[in-house]
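Render this sequence as a predicted structure.
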Amino acid sequence: MLNRLKQILAPIRYWKELPLRPMGDRPATTTAPASKIPPIVIQTWEDRLFGKSHLREMEHFLRT
């Protein structure tokens, strides 16, 4: 029953994310000493378009 409800609501959640928005590249803001792990996160996707809430969470992650 719960899985069926999730299946019904999934398209509605998707439509709330539209329009998809682009996210650009961002340069590293600091450098790390050679003995430490660099503060760089590299993520890849097929394109640069994300839903509103996904983009908001990624931007929050980049700010902190």
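Summary. The chain has two helices and two strands. The chain has one domain: 2-26+39-63.
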